[in-house]
Write a structure and sequence with these properties.
Elements (H helix, E strand, L loop, with lengths): L8 E2 L24 E8 L2 E2 L3 E4 L10 H5 L2 E3 L2 E5 L5 E4 L1 H14 L7 H14 L11 E10 L12 E10 L7 E5 L17 H16 L4 E5 L7 E4 L3 E6 L2 E4 L10 H12 L4 E3 L4 H10 L2 E8 L3 E10 L2 E4 L7 H14 L10 E3 L2
Parallel strand pairs: 1-4, 10-11, 10-17, 14-15
Antiparallel strand pairs: 2-3, 2-4, 2-9, 5-8, 6-7, 6-8, 7-19, 8-9, 11-12, 13-14, 13-16, 16-17, 17-18
Bound molecules: 2-OXO-4-methylpentanoic acid (COI).
């Protein structure tokens, strides 16, 4: 018999930590809101969802996710509009992408209603944790992991799906210096790069650390065969404006279908800007820079939204890009996304979903 998945059992905290939060001085991902969602999957079905005070969870040392990486996550945000409403940015897109990741990792898909209702109730309960300042938000982290205690390698039979939240300000304090990666690979064709699999991030840490030791913020990932084609930038998708055209790598099995990526492309198309989703060779970027037609470069992601790229290092040559203040497209699109999210511009695509 199907469990009662739409009755959410809620235990409200008796010790809110909200008073400890300095809304004027938020550091990304360090403080967690009062409550969390926890839903177990067992016997082939999702169990009754719970909202609990945020806190540690107890796990067996043999928990499968800790050994074989059967774990995924999502990143999304809630905003406060200028008239005080709490709204979510494109939550259905996160739900759909989460289920794509789940399929790739042999994990159970989560029904839309279960995801959306538990999410909305959590954010409504912790609404006072949503910062009001334009540009700030409540970062929301849904995730799922294999919870069987078993050393054998096979898909788990039990899982835990959870959501917690963390107030967020800007992710990068300054425009990023990046280095084109010529040795390591984030993902290859046929791999799990398109999924938000925890392991993709674990494997990215070492090459990123090497780049950071040389003074770069992150690497630009290239294709796994020849390192000739651009894939992503750090934990973000990457875009360039060359000669008035917005260009980004086409989606593939090695590239994450970013929701910010999709939103930026949509706004560019709305504005009549030529948009190309296709393969981009490293040489094309080098040539455009030499010709003076590389007008803009930036990462797109939930955490950073738009992260301007200051310079790109390739084979000992650092290509400086135009001053960030003079970049027409990335500044315009970042400002427009902020306006839509905070209710200061019309939401023509129906991206914003109120929590109540
Ligand atoms: C995002 O920006 O969407 C991310 O996934 C970044 C996160 C890993 C902090």
């Amino acid at each position: 018999m199907q469990s009662d998945i739409m009755t959410i059992h809620t235990q409200v905290t008796t010790a809110s930590r909200l008073a400890d939060l300095d809304m004027e001085n938020i550091q990304f991902g360090k403080i967690f809101a009062d409550h969390m969602v926890s839903i177990d999957y067992a016997n082939g079905e999702w169990q009754t969802p719970q909202i609990l005070p945020y806190g540690p969870i107890e796990l067996s040392p043999a928990t499968a996710a800790l050994h074989y990486g059967q774990a995924l996550f999502e990143g999304m945000k809630a905003y406060k509009t200028v008239d005080g409403q709490v709204v979510l940015f494109r939550p259905q897109a996160n739900w759909a992408r989460m289920n794509e990741s789940a399929k790739r990792l042999c994990m159970p898909e989560i029904p839309e209603e279960l995801f959306m209702e538990s999410l909305k109730q959590l954010i409504a309960l912790d609404a006072n944790w949503v910062p009001g300042k334009v540009g700030n938000s409540l970062y929301i982290r849904p995730f799922m992991f294999a919870s069987d205690a078993l050393v054998g390698v096979r898909p788990s039979e039990t899982y835990k799906f959870m959501i917690f939240c963390s107030p967020a300000s800007q992710y990068y304090a300054e425009p990023v210096r990046v280095k084109i990666e010529e040795k390591y690979t984030r993902s290859v064709e046929g791999g799990a790069g398109y999924a938000k699999a925890a392991g993709n991030y674990g494997a990215s840490l070492y090459p990123t650390k090497l780049a950071q030791e040389k003074g770069f913020h992150q690497v630009i990932w290239t294709d796994g065969k020849e390192h000739n084609f651009i894939e992503e930038s750090g934990t973000m998708n990457v875009m360039f404006v060359i000669d008035g055209k917005l260009i980004t790598p086409a989606l593939s099995s090695s590239i994450l279908a970013g929701i910010t990526r999709d939103s930026v492309l949509q706004l560019a198309r709305d504005w009549g800007m030529p948009v190309e989703e296709r393969r981009i060779s490293v040489q094309e970027i080098v040539d455009a820079h030499a010709a003076g037609t590389l007008e803009d470069a930036f990462g797109t992601g939930t955490a950073a939204t738009i992260a301007p790229i200051k310079s790109i290092m390739y084979k000992e040559h650092e290509m400086e890009l135009p001053a960030v203040a003079n970049r027409t497209f990335s500044n315009k699109v970042a400002a427009e996304l902020d306006k839509i999210r905070h209710g200061q511009a019309e939401d023509v695509h129906g991206w914003m979903v109120p929590v109540q």
